[in-house]
Design goal:
heterodimer, A: 321 residues, Sulfite Reductase Hemoprotein, domain 2, five-stranded mixed β-sheet, four-stranded antiparallel β-sheet, 11 strands, B: 78 residues, alpha+beta, Translation Initiation Factor IF3, 4 strands, globular
């Protein structure tokens, strides 16, 4: 079970549970999150911070714990938004975990399982945000964190097509979108929407100033809706573009879009069913992108139909105006 | 929509984002609710960003006119 708490197998370090002795509760290690460092006896303790969001009061408490247990007095912000306490002596695992638990802070995971979701700021405070990415990350963390899978399974949530959370590079990524609709009677022909559209999906009629919309160019960012002074452009519906099979690492792969406008309340079902499919079809040590390459995307899509039918097809175009 | 009389004017041509928005916001703060500010904005980034920020702050854009490479807007303080 040693691989449960050592980052993948690339570190090639064995930690003998016997040497840790009674001081470490096996359950503390089982969820992973302890990563062997170069330095003898020292580990990185990775915390579980879904969406990279943390209450300031908790951060203050974590700072105190990090200051106490990090032999070098340093932390690192991981690439997946979780705080890592560096240079922790493995003999202190039990103490640090129990102190973290007291302030409600859990340790993250490594290895072949559903990882802590990452997310941008989302619609709560980011003006571009279309979906509640933070709420989604929290929900996914609660429901799926640590679920065993053939290899690591990374999820992320971006609130808009700028895609700061890089859903295209995730095993399973969700990116917020909005479908714009236009109502002629409210439009004054001011041409702001055609200026605001960065995709050239809207040009203004030279005579009336009213928009001529090219749905093939629209990426559903909602800039037209936000810019319109008279609410002639409105949001018809919000949802997620769902992407599967992306990864970075030594051999990066770009994801495949498998659904659009999937509503918020189907995200958990999508993950549940995808993990089910992955566990049934994936080989040990194989990322889901490679499983899909080997087994075929159609088999996956057929399996997912009961969930993805709640969204729109991948090549969905907004109706013209 | 007919011509609306402005209570204040601000020419933001050549002013970069987000300084143009901040200047518009400060000007709006000197007005009473319901009063109108006339703004001149460059096309490109300013016209892409400033109107939506003004909307988000709860003001109303009454008029927008394109005049060559810039826009003339009338904004009612919310």
């Amino acid at each position: 079970m040693t691989d449960h708490f050592i980052e993948d197998k690339t570190t090639k370090v064995n930690v003998n549970l016997e040497t840790i002795g009674e001081r470490v509760d096996f359950n503390d290690l089982k969820s992973g999150g302890f990563i062997k460092q170069r330095q003898k006896d020292l580990f990185t303790v990775r915390l579980r911070c879904p969406g990279g969001r943390m209450e300031t009061k908790k951060l203050v408490e974590i700072s105190k714990i990090a200051d106490k247990y990090s032999k070098k007095g340093v932390v690192h912000f991981s690439f997946r938004q979780s705080l890592e306490i560096l240079y922790v002596d493995y003999k202190e695992f039990r103490n640090i975990v129990s102190e973290l638990e007291k302030i409600g802070q859990k340790v993250a995971s490594c290895g072949p399982r559903v990882r802590v979701p990452t997310a941008c700021g989302g619609c709560e405070y980011n003006p571009n945000g279309l979906t509640d990415t933070q709420g989604m990350a929290e929900m996914v963390d609660q429901k799926f964190f640590g679920t065993p899978t053939p290899h690591k399974f990374k999820t992320s949530f971006s609130g808009c097509p700028i895609d700061c959370s890089r859903t295209k590079e995730m095993d399973f990524g969700f990116q917020g979108i909005v479908e714009p609709v236009w109502e002629d009677p409210l439009c004054t022909g001011c041409t702001i929407c055609s200026e605001a559209c960065k995709e050239d999906a809207i040009v203004s009629d030279p005579d009336t100033g009213k928009p001529i919309f090219d749905p093939k160019k629209c990426i559903f960012c909602g800039d037209c809706i936000r810019a319109c002074p008279t609410e002639a452009w409105k949001a018809k519906r919000y949802g997620h573009i769902v992407r599967i099979g992306g990864k970075h690492g030594r051999h990066p792969m770009e994801s495949i879009e498998v659904s659009t406008f999937l509503p918020d309340d189907k995200v958990a079902d999508a993950i549940q069913k995808t993990v089910e499919w992955y566990n049934a079809n994936g080989k040990r040590g194989e990322r889901i992108g490679n499983t899909i390459k080997r087994v075929g995307i159609q088999k996956y899509l057929d399996f997912m139909e009961p969930v993805f039918k709640h969204g729109s097809p991948v090549n969905y175009l907004a109706p013209g105006v | 929509m007919g011509e609306v009389k402005a209570n204040a004017h601000l020419d933001l041509r050549g002013v970069m984002c987000p300084i143009n928005f901040v200047k518009a916001k400060l000007k709006l703060e000197t007005l009473e609710a319901g009063e109108v500010l006339e703004l001149v904005l460059d096309s490109g980034e300013p016209i892409q960003n400033v109107p939506k920020s003004i909307k988000e702050e709860g003001h109303k854009i009454l008029e927008v006119k394109k005049e060559g490479e810039h826009f003339r807007l009338k904004i009612q303080k919310g």
